[in-house]
Design goal:
Elements: E1 2-6, H1 20-34, E2 38-42, E3 52-54, H2 72-83, E4 90-93, H3 100-103, E5 110-113, H4 126-134, E6 139-142, H5 145-148, E7 156-159, E8 178-185, H6 191-201, E9 205-211, H7 216-232, E10 236-239, H8 244-252, E11 254-259, H9 269-276, E12 281-284, H10 289-292, E13 299-302, H11 319-328, H12 335-345, H13 348-364
Parallel strand pairs: 1-2, 1-4, 2-3, 4-5, 5-6, 6-7, 8-9, 8-11, 9-10, 11-12, 12-13
Helix pairs in contact: 1-13, 6-7, 9-12
């Protein structure tokens, strides 16, 4: 197959640090090339790939929220892909909304994977929701079944889970000595809860997270003061961002990874990366968490504080209390089972299988 992979131009493929969408595009592109497909990757010029690389930008143009309010820069990038549509059997859009406006102008089949939540609280902007509804009959691939709940009436062709390369991580069967939190620094990712748990349990927290300028006020007024308090007790090691090759060491030596999210996260690579290293995950029951974690087998699922009703999970306590209780019981988790769970469900090979099936389906149709 001749396949165009359209990535956003904000970050390189793969990203040097944080960048979930760009990492998945990298894994998928490399996997397709290895299977003999003719792949063209539309991404920033500083990307690395075995596919043919095309970009109008020599370097990534930046991933902060201020730049993302400038729509013309990515549109110049996207139009190059669609002007060459006749060269491809299929175009796979990973670049969210703007590319949808171009899809109906070409005869080549186009499929969209939107690497974000569709829920009203996560996408409150009416223009974005109107765009999705305008193009609801396009071909969409969800990255979890829970992602669909945010907008049920899109034309979903399949669910294909994201995959990682286990060979990039190191497995450890030894119980770690510290708590781990990793991700983009934003309130909905739950960094405050992670800091609070470290304070309650007196267990060191190792935290790594990229800060977006739009979160500066939150970091300055809330997060950084909490970090300074924990530093006085030697309970925190914090880096704003770490390289991809540093992740494995952080995960594999941890007691568990904390994932107390407050949004309908459609996948959550952190969970898969942690588990493949053997490190269990303790997470709130939001978004795709129940699809990635196996409660009591690869970690614990806890209901958030505002949950009403009786929990179906092993630990009945809610909120911070539940997270603390889960960490106290973390020795019940077999680290080998965590690793095997990822190898059986969330690898690059599994992901490429899923997308190949969809491509063939759409091309034949």
């Amino acid at each position: 197959m001749k396949i165009a992979q359209l990535a956003p131009p904000w970050l390189s493929v793969p990203p040097s640090g944080y960048g979930g969408t760009e990492l998945i595009v990298y894994y998928l592109t490399q996997g397709l090339v290895k299977r003999g497909h003719d792949v063209t990757l539309f991404a920033s010029g500083d990307s690395k790939t075995d596919a043919k690389l095309f970009s109008i930008y020599p370097k990534s143009i930046g991933n902060n929220g201020e730049l993302k309010n400038q729509p013309l820069s990515p549109m110049l990038h996207y139009i190059e892909c669609f002007e060459r549509a006749s060269e491809f059997d299929i175009i796979h859009n990973h670049a969210q909304y703007y590319a949808m406006f171009l899809a109906d102008l070409v005869k080549t089949p186009v499929v969209h994977t939107i690497h974000g939540s569709f829920s009203k609280e996560d996408v409150p902007q009416e223009d974005k929701r109107q765009t999705l509804m305008k193009f609801k009959n396009h071909n969409f691939i969800s990255i979890s079944d829970s992602q669909r709940r945010g907008l049920m009436n899109l034309n979903y062709i399949a669910t294909v889970y994201n995959g990682i390369d286990p060979s990039e991580f190191q497995y450890s069967g030894e119980k770690g000595k510290y708590l781990c939190w990793m991700g983009r620094i934003t309130q909905k990712k739950g960094p405050q809860e992670a800091l609070e748990i470290a304070r309650i349990l007196k267990i060191k927290l190792k935290m790594a997270g990229a800060v977006d300028p739009v979160e500066k006020e939150y970091c300055d007024n809330v997060l950084y003061p909490l970090i300074e308090e924990l530093r006085k007790e030697n309970l925190i090691e914090y880096k704003e961002e770490i390289k991809r090759d540093e992740k494995a060491d952080l995960y594999k030596d941890a007691l568990c990874t904390l994932y107390p999210i407050h949004w309908e996260e459609p996948f959550g690579l952190v969970m898969a990366e942690s588990m493949v290293c053997g490190t269990p995950v303790v997470a709130y029951n939001r978004g795709s968490v129940p699809e990635l974690l196996r409660d009591g087998l690869t970690g614990f699922i806890i209901e958030p504080e505002d949950f009403e009703g009786e929990s179906k999970w092993i630990i009945k306590k809610k909120g911070i209390e539940g997270l603390v209780e889960a960490i106290k019981r973390i020795n019940e988790i077999d680290r080998k089972k965590c690793h095997e769970h990822v190898e059986n469900n969330f690898t690059v090979g599994k992901m490429v299988d899923g997308y190949e099936k969809v491509y063939n389906q759409l091309i034949n149709k």
